[in-house]
Amino acid sequence: MTEQRKVTTGHLLALLTILIWGTTFISTKILLIDFTPVEILFFRFLIGYVVLFMLYPRPLRTASFREELLFMAAGLCGVTLYFLIENIALVYTHAASVGVIVSIGPFLTAVLAHFFLKGEKLHTRFIAGFGVALTGIILIGLNGSLILRLNPLGDLLAFLAPAVWAVYSVLMRTISQRNYSTIGATRKVFFYGLLFMTPALFLFEFNLDFTRLTNMVNLSNLLFLGLGASALCFVTWNRAVGLLGAVKTSVYIYLVPVITVGASALILQERITWVTVLGTGLALGGSLISEGKSKIATTSDRDTPSYVESG
Q1: Which residues form the EamA domain (predicted)?
Q2: Within a domain: 239
């Protein structure tokens, strides 16, 4: 695969991932009628793990216990902690606040990558794009209310969510340099994510009432989250991180609220205000600015190995 083809493939995979992740809130919102947040989280990743196991049933053996620790940490951060912290934050603070705070994830990823990954240095275009995109995301979160309500505990938790996702992104970039199968690596991450999630099942409301799945609305939405948002999207996202790097891939997170707004209007018939339109434009513009090439980034990225073809 040529360098240009790798870059193009990485961007397409990241865009596909964000298009799906930007609509998952609809399925989650529907499922919350009959399921608790931790139940949704557990079932979606269990489905995802089963699917990935069917696609890649071979054991993924690591070269050392140190490399195994990378997968354990990735499962803890990217699956267990990120989603649990985000869901708990929503209990204590407003969704708009969480949406705005979580959007700093790409910046935190860039900072960590700057210090821990070779060839992923911060540059002025990225910082400028972050500022523009964050302004747009704040406007989308406000949606014309002009008041962003703050809650210390909830907002602190919301800040921790993108922090652990940044750690996950750096870990997956490190794992990608080991040339493991993308599907096999993602499956192993899911395994540890589910393992570390097990104690939370006893701390929060959780039951195995499968009669809820006889409702086709529940079943279809859970399958969408498990097959699409988990099994497919984590593979495509991890592959994109391997091809583009943690920083460039993370920029696509800016588009999540944009897609969410569009999906809300189309599916839930929610009203779009001029403030939302302005915020959407700024978020899109900021992502384009951050994606601008920098001599440091483009030169050193060529020296960084990526995932081998999955199989």
Answers
A1: 9-141, 153-289
A2: yes
